[in-house]
Amino acid sequence: MRLDKLLSNMGYGSRKEVRQLLKAGSVRVNTETMKDASAQVDPHQDEVSILGERVLYKEFIYLMLHKPQGVISATEDGRDRTVVDLLDAEDSHFNPFPVGRLDKDTEGLLLLTNDGKLAHHLLSPRKEVPKTYYAHISGFVTEEDVVKFAAGVTLEDGYLTKPGMLKVLKSAEKSEIELTITEGKFHQVKRMFEAVGKRVIYLKRLSMGPLQLDASLPIGEYRELTEEELESLLVLVNKEES
Ligand code: URA
To answer: pTM of this prediction?
Structure first.
């Protein structure tokens, strides 16, 4: 990989700015000062440093966002703020995108990454990755609903959902539930409750596959996945390949 590309990809400025850094003699590759922007480096082998500070190369970024209400799960939107607008420049320059969508008024766990293979795996309907949601429901959610969800419910367009595991945390005028589903149809949780004559009034995603929303992550904030979290996701992809 070209040296100027590596430095630019790692957030040290545009190619032009990086060339100035090189010209000024600020960049070393292994033990040598390097001024040639087109020099080829192996990001996994060569030690690159800027003014003595080691440049740590990474290709992929994996972020856990506690999505707030009011932002769109997309990389661009003509009108509203998107989840990518919540990221610092040092993270957004990796061009991460949200893995799947949460509605504008849904909160909770959203993974952002630039690892297309992982995203594809997590979103593929064939993989049936479980997603668990916590919700407030207008109306009494009953054991009858639990049984109906377990068999799959028919949405207004005639689609019969895969079984959903519904747990009633509180059955009241405003019920509280947890629902685990293995699909990701548009507005799926809301439409499943509509199918049994009830309405979701608050929705939060708690988990996606092995990844759990970090309870200590404030709404609107994000962090990189820990090594264990990332490993638990990559294991799923690698399992498939072996
Ligand atoms: N189901 C919904 O209805 N909305 C979401 O945001 C996610 C799942």
So the answer is: 0.89
